[in-house]
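My main concern about presentation is that the manuscript never shows what a single data entry looks like. In essence, backbone conformation is discretised, so a fold becomes a row of integers matching the chain in length. An entry of this sort, consisting of the sequence and the corresponding backbone structure tokens, reads as follows:
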Amino acid sequence: MAVTNDIPWLNDDEQHMWREWMHLNAELLATLNRDMQADSRLSNPDYQVLVVLTDSADGRSRISDLATELQWERSRVSHHVARMEKRDLVSRQGCPEDGRGAFVRITETGRATIERAAPAHVRAVRHLVFDALTADEVTQLGEIFHRLRSRVARSAG
């Protein structure tokens, strides 16, 4: 790769940290996905959708709000929700205030499924992440991640 003076290339430490982060991110998500599939037959995206819906007071969300919360394209949400509907995890409802909009609502099956899946997921996250960190490191990483997310959000728009 040609190095030019106007490009702020990563130094060796930065490059090492960046690659470690990329590998960790991919490996952690793959491991959590495999574990969840084995334990509950949910994928990470299924779980993410169900978490957003269970966090809502009425167990539902507009598709556009769900897309924003998950950082997904609306078409991805629609396709994924359609697959989840076939498994009776969620249902779609028209929006009376807006004939074009739709709500996604968690079903009883979806609620029971996430309630069964959550304990194993939390145990896996604790084992893979939090058990390897001190309380101070958790606090430091939380602050770092918040700062980075804020920076990314500002640059996105």
